[in-house]
Amino acid sequence: MTPKWSLQSTKTNFGLLICVIIVMVCVFAQLTIWWELRRPPEGLWRNSSLPTFSDERVPGRNSTKIIMFWTRRANTNNWFSYPEKFTTRSMSKITNCSQNNCIYTSNHSLIRQADILLFYLNEKPDWPKVRYAHQYYAHFIHEAPGKRNQRTFLDQYEDNINITINFRRDADLYLPYNTLLPVKSDHDYRPRIPHGNKTGMAVWPVSHCVTESHREHYVAELSKHLEVDIYGRCGSHICNRSRTHSCSKSWEEKYKYYLSFENNVCEDYITEKVFLPLQYEIIPVVFGGGNYSRDVPPRSVINARDFDSPKDLANFLIHLASDEQRYRSYFKWKSRFEIVGGVPRFMCRLCQALHENEFHPHPAKSHYADYWYGVHGEMCDNEVIPRMRKEGGW
Ligand SMILES: *[C@@H]1O[C@H](CO)[C@@H](O)[C@H](O)[C@H]1NC(C)=O
Ligand SMILES: *[C@@H]1O[C@H](CO)[C@@H](O)[C@H](O)[C@H]1NC(C)=O
Ligand SMILES: *[C@@H]1O[C@H](CO)[C@@H](O)[C@H](O)[C@H]1NC(C)=O
Ligand SMILES: *[C@@H]1O[C@H](CO)[C@@H](O)[C@H](O)[C@H]1NC(C)=O
Ligand SMILES: *[C@@H]1O[C@H](CO)[C@@H](O)[C@H](O)[C@H]1NC(C)=O
Ligand SMILES: *[C@@H]1O[C@H](CO)[C@@H](O)[C@H](O)[C@H]1NC(C)=O
Ligand SMILES: *[C@@H]1O[C@H](CO)[C@@H](O)[C@H](O)[C@H]1NC(C)=O
Ligand SMILES: *[C@@H]1O[C@H](CO)[C@@H](O)[C@H](O)[C@H]1NC(C)=O
């Protein structure tokens, strides 16, 4: 006969056991989360998960090239997030694409047939388990190399990446935000917006308030001498962000200048901050590391770096604003150039490069981080504005 206390004790022990298990599960979950969040020390998962090579000749490959987005973008916006939307039909509609015999996919189950795998920076690549000799691995990015702490990620790209795809002129496949297309036109561009309607001076739409380039310091100084209306997270003016076009339209009607200051001052880095306002009747005031005399239309932007100080720039802008004819001379290029670009156009270009075997057999790059940042970090110079401040005492 079992004594009463024994039964009680079993119950208590059982309860205790449950408690212990729950605590252990919690601790384990915490540890797992902590482990995931923790920046990995260099070399830790660097070679643990790299693919092993296979010489297998993959059956079922044919003349259709498969472009596979292996990583998904960390900050999802419309850029490259949904490769499946680039169907052969939509591609032939969107661009005048001479080669669209490609499949764009992020479905990993097609891995063996894939001709090129695209890896986006900023993401811990979960490398494929097996790598086929016919495949290119491409590092594909449209953001600046700015943040040096990304080096830990980049170390993994060492000896793994065959093809570079980015905005740099020296990339294996040059992917600018936009490019210029000369057009033939027998009439001059006639501005639509009466000069007198533009009652404001400068508009600055901005969502990153503290940047590597320190542009916020420049604009703070500039706005002591020139009226700057700041839209977005870093200012007091509001426009519906869901409708970029209507915001831009309202800005071109109201302002004379659009501040197009890059968040990083890097080689060839000219972004949509410049190309967006160029498509409206407003003059972009640019600050960045790109070559603006080569990559944007002639006399289409004002480069802040041509001026010794924000005050000098402000004086120039005020002066120009009061001279209608000279102000409007910055729109003359519009009758001679068209700005083209966009993801579908780029995808067409990639498809074409694959079909025409432009990359040849292309061994992987060593010293990848040196390529991306420059051996001494010279691909970016984010100290331009701090230097100007020091010299100018502002
Ligand atoms: C893996 O990485 C460690 C540390 O970087 C290195 O010492 C080791 O040689 C590597 N192993 C292989 C197989 O590459
Ligand atoms: C070629 O391969 C692709 C992808 O596997 C497939 O969708 C397509 O139907 C194939 N074409 C031919 C002609 O077999
Ligand atoms: C499309 O491409 C064809 C052939 O390359 C060319 O003749 C035509 O002008 C292009 N159309 C446009 C709108 O660019
Ligand atoms: C991925 O492709 C495989 C094989 O073609 C297919 O069975 C599967 O449904 C696809 N997955 C998605 C999410 O489309
Ligand atoms: C210019 O301003 C006038 C008066 O406010 C307005 O009626 C007109 O629509 C404006 N023009 C443009 C192109 O914005
Ligand atoms: C934003 O857009 C919505 C819908 O178009 C509109 O109702 C609202 O008034 C807009 N807000 C501002 C601040 O313009
Ligand atoms: C910018 O590009 C032009 C035209 O290609 C070239 O002549 C000039 O030297 C470049 N400027 C710089 C600073 O590289
Ligand atoms: C890509 O690089 C790897 C490593 O160097 C190489 O084995 C592979 O053949 C290259 N791919 C192509 C298509 O050249």
Automatic annotation (TrEMBL):
Q: Which residues cross the membrane?
A: 12-35
Give the enzyme's EC designation: 2.4.1.-
Q: Which GO MF term does the entry hold, naming one?
A: fucosyltransferase activity
Bilayer topology term:
Single-pass type II membrane protein
Instruction: Tell me where on the tree of life, at the top rank, the source sits.
Output: Eukaryota
Keyword Phosphoprotein applies: no
Give the metabolic or biological pathway: Protein modification; protein glycosylation
**InterPro entries per the UniProt record, alphabetical:** Glyco_tran_10_C, Glyco_tran_10_N, Glyco_trans_10, GT10-like_C_sf
The residues covered by the Fucosyltransferase N-terminal domain are 63-178
Instruction: State any GO CC term.
Output: Golgi cisterna membrane
Keywords from UniProt, A to Z, are: Glycoprotein, Glycosyltransferase, Golgi apparatus, Membrane, Signal-anchor, Transferase, Transmembrane, Transmembrane helix
In this protein, which residues make up the domain named Fucosyltransferase C-terminal? 197-360
Q: Does the keyword Cell division apply?
A: no
Chief subcellular location: Golgi
Q: Where in the cell is it found?
A: Golgi apparatus membrane; Golgi apparatus, Golgi stack membrane
Family note: Belongs to the glycosyltransferase 10 family.
What is the protein name stated in its UniProt record? Answer: Fucosyltransferase
Q: Which organism is it from?
A: Paralvinella palmiformis
